[in-house]
Amino acid sequence: MEIIIYGIINSIILSLMSLGFALVYSISRLPNFAHGALYITAGYIVWLLVNKAGLPYLPSILLGLGATGLIGALMYRFIIIRIRGMEISEIIGTYAIGLAIIEGLRWGGLRGMTYTLPVFVQGSMSIGGVTVDYHRLIIVGAGVLTFALLFLFTRYNRIGLALRGIAQDERAAMMLGIDSDMTAIISLAIGSGLAGLAAVLLLPLGNIVVEQGYNVLIFAVAVCIIGGLGSWTGTIVAAFIIGFAQILTETFISSHFVMVVALLAIIVTLLIKPSGIFGKQKELEERV
Amino acid sequence: MFEARELMVFYENMLALNNVSLQCEKGSIIGIFGSNSAGKSTLMYALSGIILDIKKKEEMRGGERISLFGNIFFEGQDITNVKPHLRAKMGIVLCPERRRIFPESSVMENLKIGAYLSPKNDTKANIDYVLDLFPRLKDHLKRQGGFLSGGEQQMLAIGRALMARPKILLLDEPLLGLSPAYMDIVINGTKAIRDTKGISIIVTEQYARPVMPIIDRGYILENGSNVLSGTKEELLDNPDVKSAYFGV
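Above: the input entities. Below: the structure tokens describing the complete assembly.
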């Protein structure tokens, strides 16, 4: 029972971490290696707003998400737009931006255990004999809500439909008047916002430490490779596979191996089915 | 209303289009005929501006060097360097070769994505218009685009292009791989679009016979050059055209 409940929670956490990365890649074919840095930036911005500016928690969160989305959009508009289409440069460029942000924060004093965000609701409850705190339940709820909203947005909204068009056939969408730079900016803004959302939901479980930025990036890349780059269904399925695999490892082997599971899963996927479970990209081997 | 003047396109040193000029008056149907590699698709890419995107992507990848010379005018404006999505906004919409339907979206969704440029009130009326034009699509509204037959995909592709409310519609090989029955539907549909909406149409095709009856003016491309042009009657009377494109 414990395995099932914590498996589901862990899977939702993983899919929240990787959703932004998957979304940007599926729409713009842009591997956003600054994803982890945006995650940690969002956490830090919210912390600053709460502790330095003295704003209440909820407005700080909303402002933090907006700011992160804006950073993503600006990142595309002023830097990535120049290297769009040069695949290796895209990876190096976004990774460099990510490194600069993370190490900049570390240099600026973001280290140690003093930076924490409070949980939304204190306390815990018991489900089938397993104690689960309210905050983790909120994470599950927020995760499901996010998937649902994204689903509706991409099916019934004009902009959302344009994003789906670009994701499926960029040039055909262009012929219908959809601007691929504009959709890339939107996708990066949404993707960064999702990284920020993951941050405000997940960071209260621990401390805001810069190393989290790297971990999140690794998890996001692992989930996307296993699910198949560019496939949303794949992302969620892969998040559940890794999520449960991690919980099983933690219960039956040792919690030291949790990170190894994700990396091992990448290697196994690349050996058996390089394009991932739901992937259509044949050029995956060349790209990552 | 729409005019290309002395278009030249090079892929590296290969000349794909050589000094091609063409004109399209409002509400007319222009046919462009030529065999494989005559430059039909390149011409369509140049007219719709997609060539600018291809050129940029190739430059970024360090691939082929594409050079483009000449001018394209639309409603008196020089649009040679206008990006493809802005040209679509001005009313130049390309329905590409091999259809390029969005395979994972349903028929309805394909049409809705096509309606990106049109205001919400128009969208419903446009969808009804497309479904009246090609009633067969009504049976498959929920089916994924990738699972349609070639003929249905072609109807959907034309319908999707119409959703963008074109003033001039570029159809690149709309009859490619279709059965004669579907050819009739597509050709009649094309004529109906011009007759009911007054949209100008430029259509390319390898095989002239099915398209000939509906065109006002035709151009014949060979190896990137425009070897012959004229009204439908002039082309039909020309003995070279007869032997090369009608097999008489």
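Note for the figure: The first strand of chain A starts at residue 124 and ends at 127.
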